[in-house]
Design a protein that fits this description.
- The structure holds 2 protein chains of 2 kinds.
- Chain A is 25% helix and 28% strand.
- By secondary structure, chain A is of the alpha/beta class.
- Chain A has a single domain (2-6, 22-180), classed as Class I glutamine amidotransferase (GATase) domain (Rossmann fold), CATH 3.40.50.
- In chain A, the strands form 3 sheets. Chain A has a 5-stranded mixed β-sheet with strand order 1-2-11-10-9.
- Chain A is globular, with a radius of gyration of 15 Å.
- By secondary structure, chain B is an alpha/beta fold.
- Chain B has helices at 30-39, 60-68, 84-92, 107-117, 149-154, 196-201, 205-211, 220-223, 227-234, and strands at 3-11, 14-19, 23-28, 44-50, 75-78, 97-100, 122-131, 134-139, 144-148, 161-166, 189-192, 212-217.
- Classes of the chains: A alpha/beta, B alpha/beta.
- The A-B interface holds A 2-3, 6, 31-36, 64, 75-76, 99-100, 102-104, 120, 122, 124-127, 164, 166-173 and B 1, 3, 38, 41, 43, 70, 72-74, 91, 94, 96-97, 114-121, 158-159, 161, 213-214, 239, 241.
């Protein structure tokens, strides 16, 4: 979360659902495997996050955080997600020529931000959302892709990002700043 | 594209550059080294720590340095990781992926760590030595060679990324034993130790990209002016961002 603070934003790390929700944006970070993270979210945050989404307040998931915002993921033997975004995340090998994506890829962020353009961001994942997922064709969703994988998806206040802006040097800093300011 | 990875070796409270993992030259404060790599936009940073006490867990000097830096380059850390709690500490300090070495032989614990961090969060660190055309795993703790490297790789989960370190060529521009890659099947690997000259001179970029996911450069990125930018600009397999 340091990257948000260094951009001048006030940050709170939540250990439980807060009583007062006056946050401009809530970020589900993305380190670890689905099993351990889902347990924490389901026990401590699920109801609050769903209410927050219903109230059209912004929620942003990064990497695993994004995957847990989907309907589910097949990681860790199958996990139910928050259902804020369509589709079930699968091993990359199901829809890509690779089983692991580690490295930098160019991503078009037009639609994720109000500005247009592209930049390079760092990916590190073995599961992901197939960009051919039928329900993403709904016009509510704007998406960016790398090969056959969803790199980001946005539906108004609900934002999922597969790559790691917090590990993407200057491009990542710009993206985070603009996402928070844009939201 | 192949990742250009800067590396730094840490012993005690000092960052070092190495040659054959035998000769060392102090680089000074780790935080400064990390910030140079970050400013020069290497694709990843690989930190390898040698610990005086092998039972003390990950290097607190490295983890503290990471917490104090403002870097936004992904970090792979290797050294002293023994438990899931050690992995958690690394992640909380800003490490993106952990490099495992001795733990590769503890299958149950390895699988538990993969379950905890995800398979993408683990790099199998495989130093090796060539002997009579065969490649053997070099145990950094005992400083002795052990099993054939192919045997170890065959027992690792398929998706785990491999880092092959040619001990004899460490710190050099050339001398990496390329035949070791044949022991890796269809896996893409990261290589370290005497690699940059051949990577720069090879004309078959597509073949190279099929074999490799990353190239670790030990020393030259730090003490050659604009080395990272020049490698990225002039060597087609690296991504100029």
């Amino acid at each position: 979360m340091n990257i948000f603070e260094r951009q001048g934003f006030m940050v709170s790390v939540l250990k439980n659902s807060p009583k007062d929700d006056d946050f401009n944006i809530v970020v589900l970070p993305g380190v670890g495997s689905a099993g351990s993270a889902a347990e924490t979210i389901n026990v401590k945050f699920r109801t609050w996050l769903l209410e927050r989404a219903k109230a059209e307040k912004t929620i942003m998931g990064i990497c695993l955080g994004f995957q847990l915002m989907c309907e589910g993921t097949e990681e860790s033997g199958g996990i139910e997600g928050l259902g804020l975004l369509p589709g079930v995340c699968k091993p990359l090998g199901c829809f890509e020529n690779t089983s692991l994506r580690v490295g930098w890829h160019q991503v078009n962020y037009s639609g994720l931000l109000s500005s247009h353009g592209s930049d390079y961001y760092y990916f590190n994942h073995a599961f992901g959302l197939d960009s051919n997922e039928a329900n993403l064709n709904n016009t509510d969703y704007r998406i960016g892709v790398v090969e056959n994988t969803v790199a980001w998806v946005r539906n108004q206040n609900i934002i999922g990002i597969q790559f790691h802006p917090e590990k993407s040097q200057i491009a990542g800093k710009h993206l985070i700043y603009n996402l928070v300011e844009d939201k | 594209m192949i990742r250009l990875i800067g590396s730094v070796f840490v012993q005690g409270d000092v960052a070092l550059q190495t040659h054959n993992f035998d000769n060392y030259r102090p680089l000074g404060d780790l935080k400064g080294v990390l910030e140079i790599y970050d400013q020069h936009c290497v694709d990843e940073i690989f930190i390898s720590a040698r610990l005086d006490d092998v039972d003390s867990g990950p290097s607190s000097y490295v983890l503290d340095s990471l917490i104090k830096t403002n870097i936004t380059t992904p970090v792979v850390y290797s050294g002293g990781i023994r438990t899931i709690e050690d992995v958690r500490q690394c992640l909380e300090s800003g490490v993106e992926r952990v490099g495992l070495h001795s733990l590769l032989f503890m299958k149950s614990l390895l699988m538990d760590i993969i379950q905890y961090i995800g398979v993408q969060g683990v790099v199998a660190v495989l130093p090796f030595v060539e002997k009579k055309g065969e490649f053997f795993f070099y145990d950094c703790r005992t400083r002795k060679v052990s099993k054939p490297i192919g045997e170890i790789i065959a027992n690792l989960p398929e998706v785990v990324e491999l880092l092959l370190i040619d001990i004899k060529a460490d710190g050099s521009e050339t001398g990496f034993s390329w035949d070791v890659i044949k022991k890796c099947g269809n896996r893409k690997v990261i290589i370290q130790g005497g690699v940059i000259q051949e990577v720069a001179s090879r004309k078959d970029a597509d073949i190279l990209e099929n074999e490799l996911s990353g190239v670790v450069i030990e020393n030259r990125l730090l003490w050659t002016e604009c080395a990272t930018q020049n490698y990225k600009k002039n060597i087609p397999v690296f991504m100029s961002r």
